[in-house]
Amino acid sequence: MQNNNIISIATPGNARKKTAVPSQWKREKEKRRRHSSTGFPTRPKCEHNNSNQRQYQCKTLTMQDLRRAHQMFYDLPDKIKQDEIILRFVVISPIHRNRSRKDCFEKQVSIKYFMPKLNANGGRENVLVCKKAFTDIFRISKKRVDFVCKNYFKTGQSPKENRGGQRPAPKYEIQREMVKAFILKLKPIESHYCREKNTNRQYLPSEMSISSLYKVFNDTTPGQDVKYDFFRSIFCTDFNIGFGSPATDCCSLCISLTQKIKVTRCLIEKRELSTKLEVHKKKADAFYKLLQNENDGEITFSFDCQKNLVLPKVPDQSAYYSRQLYLYNFTVCQGTSKSKQLKENTFMYLWLETDYKKGSNEIASFVYHCLKNTNLMNIHTIRLFSDGCGGQNKNQVMLFMLSKFLQECPSHIKNVNYFYPIVGHSFIPPDRIFGRLEKQFKKIACMTSINDYLKIFETVGTVINVSSTNVCKVYDWKSSCLNILKPPANWHFKFAPTKRILLSKSKQNNVLVRGEPHYYLNVGQERGLCKRGKTLTSMKLNVLNKGVQNIKTAKKTDVDNLLKKHFGCDWRNLPDLEYYKTVINMDNEENNEQDYESDFGDINEENAEFD
Fold first, then answer.
1. Highest mean pLDDT among 152-161, 276-285, 465-474
2. Are residues 267 and 207 in the same domain?
3. 388-433, pLDDT tens digit by residue?
4. Helices assigned H by DSSP within 427-552
5. CB 409 within 8 A of CB 382
6. Residue whose C-alpha is closest to residue 514's, from 524, 529, 499
7. For the chain, how far is it from start to end, CA to CA, in angstroms?
8. Residues of 513-531 as b/e, b for ≥16 C-beta within 10 angstroms?
9. Pair 345, 475 in one domain
10. Tell me: the pLDDT tens digits for 199-218?
11. Residue ranges making up the domain that contains 432
12. Is residue 471 part of a domain?
């Protein structure tokens, strides 16, 4: 594994720019096929009854001798290497006497052919064979043998390939090594949210570029100036280096501790700050390791909400200053962070702002629906991963829903483990889905209906349109939760610093909950969360009605004005904009409060991390 603290030369095929691989060219494959074996060697059938031919020992060769010689010859399908092997087993000498021939062919050289053979002592010796046996064993033509031997006899040199070759390369080898040495002195930075799969990629600060590095190289090496194309070619073909983007979602605690380490002059204080930063990063790595691995009998889910998608999405400048309607997306990914994201294991729940809120009731209902519709055969433990948003995920409503699910699920499911990340280090598989979606959103200038978004969502995963179907019901978990569960202040563990919540079944089919502030260390106790005299079986879930969310008058006015600017004053007559006409004509309620995403719980948790 490469050291991320220094720049390293890329291995072949892993550079920044894809380089040519001659071995994969069609003509090279054909060349290798031409010089590969076409079959097994055959035993020599020559008789050699003539007194002058009795010196040949062709029949003493065993099939193992033939196989070894044949395999040695075709071990590397390269003509030059094979010609060298031919020369190893022949003896070329000038002719001692010319004889008249009927075909007027004048013999130029005398050639004796040999073949390796195992002797009685286990060693190898070369035995004399005839030309026909030599060519049959190697499965080559007599013409090829004559050409190689005569050419060697004339030149006295081994065969070599004269075609192709990059002859000017050695001329600029000094400049090439200087450029490599300059690049190797650069110091890479740690990438933000780099996927583990791309371990060969290294990054330089975002303010750098190839052109800026080229200028620095020419300024620091006077008299050895190189062209920009030469410098860029080495940078792209010999290294796998990218330039990082300015981080926009960094951990506040990491930034704070890093800046304090830079400015402090006290060595003791700097050591303490460095230790805190290292411990903080170790905790974050522990969460990601749990997300990467999955044991037999376990199934993993991770879920998160995407940022609000606006309706209508238009390129008008006034849209930046206008309130718009929202489309919500809640995504559930089945599998670990190393699992391939397919349509079959990615589930996206979509609903409009006018249909339901974006609160804990909706999120708990969607997770409940996903768990209920998943094949849990041969599963004993369900693992859940999400961020610590208090308004949606990390709350008593979610625990209440999971307790209800665990109690009514099949008996072979024994545990539900819920993991929360370290604040600021909450990159989970749904974020990768959101990145892929937003790339496609940027390519489309105008989207005015939910169907425009649905076409893009359906290319990434399985879409559950909560607004248009009754497949997924939204329950009022919050009301039932307040009646049955104790307040979080009366729980047997502190909820805010908890990083791992373990739910299990008791022998009486009651659900026991244990909260742990650490990812691996177990120090908590298992107890129930229900009030005295209350049980999960006594709860009654009510289904929330769809379409009762009213929009404020100010937002309606902005949407109306935006549509007038983009489509004209007669926009109400367009059939594709019927949804906006219905929303604007709805009764107004000025005091409507939406449950928007809140991170206050994360902020409080961050401040208390090292208390």
1. 276-285
2. no
3. 988 888 999 999 999 999 998 988 999 999 999 998 888 899 999 9
4. 429-442, 450-457, 477-484
5. no
6. 524
7. 37
8. bbbbeebeeeebeeebbbe
9. yes
10. 678 888 888 999 999 999 99
11. 293-584
12. yes
